[in-house]
Amino acid sequence: MSARDYPDRPWVGIGLIAFRGEDVLLVRRGKPPRQGEWSIPGGAQHLGETAEAAARRELREETGIEVGPLALAVVVDALTEDAAGRVRFHYTIIDFAGRWLSGEPVAGDDVSEARWFSPGEVAGLGLWPEALRAIAEGRRRLAELP
After folding, report:
1. For the chain, how far is it from start to end, CA to CA, in angstroms?
2. Where are the alpha helices (DSSP H) in the chain?
3. Which residues contact 107 (CB under 8 A, 6 or more apart)?
4. CB 27 within 8 A of CB 114
5. Is 37 exposed, middle or buried (0-12, 13-18, 19+ CB in 10 A)?
6. How far is the C-alpha of 115 from the C-alpha of 141, rounded, in Å?
7. What is the DSSP string of 20-59?
8. Catalytic: which of 52, 61, 66, 113?
9. Residue 113 annotated in active site
10. Neighbouring residues of 122: CB distance < 8 A, sequence distance ≥ 6
11. Which of 14, 33, 48, 91 sits at a 20 to 30 Å CA gap from 131?
């Protein structure tokens, strides 16, 4: 059990939805929660680190990818309860979106895979509904950037 199990406050999680053309970069989680599932690259914000710096760091550590300007996509709360109804995990997740600049996906840090997916492939991955919403909103918000 980690310090994030049964917290006394939410943990701030930061994600970065990277797009290369229409394709989106996803990672397969190597640790709980959602171990083995595909998701948006991201992780915990460090003390003294800005949210945007955390997003870029997590993307680089988990995938080796760099992106350009960021747009705020969504803010969601991820809550997981145990069988007794107690909160086991609580993350407030801030997801940014950015367009690919450089690098090829290489699984790093706490992920087992990292790869680009076409819009048609994403539907069959069984993603968390909030991740699907974040991808759609990130795509929309990036289209608004100059």
Report:
1. 45
2. 51-63, 119-122, 129-143
3. 27, 28, 62, 63, 113, 114
4. yes
5. middle
6. 22
7. ETTEEEEEEESSSSSTTSEE-SEEEPPTT--HHHHHHHHH
8. 113
9. yes
10. 24, 26, 132, 135
11. 48
* Domain coverage including residue 64: 17-143
Residue 82: Cβ within 10 Å count: 11
Instruction: Give per-residue pLDDT as tens, 27-71.
Output: 999 987 678 999 999 999 999 999 999 999 999 999 999 999 999
Question: Residue 98: beta bridge partners?
Answer: 18, 70
pLDDT tens, position by position, 4-20: 889 899 999 999 999 99
- pLDDT value at residue 33: 67
Q: Look at the chain and report how many structural domains it folds into.
A: 1
Classify residue 135: in a domain, yes or no: yes
Instruction: Flag whether 101 is in a domain.
Output: yes
Q: What CATH number is attached to the domain comprising 132?
A: 3.90.79.10
Name the 3-class secondary structure at 136: helix
Q: Which of 144, 7, 124 is nearest to 70 (CA)?
A: 144
CA proximity to 100, closest of 14, 2, 24: 24
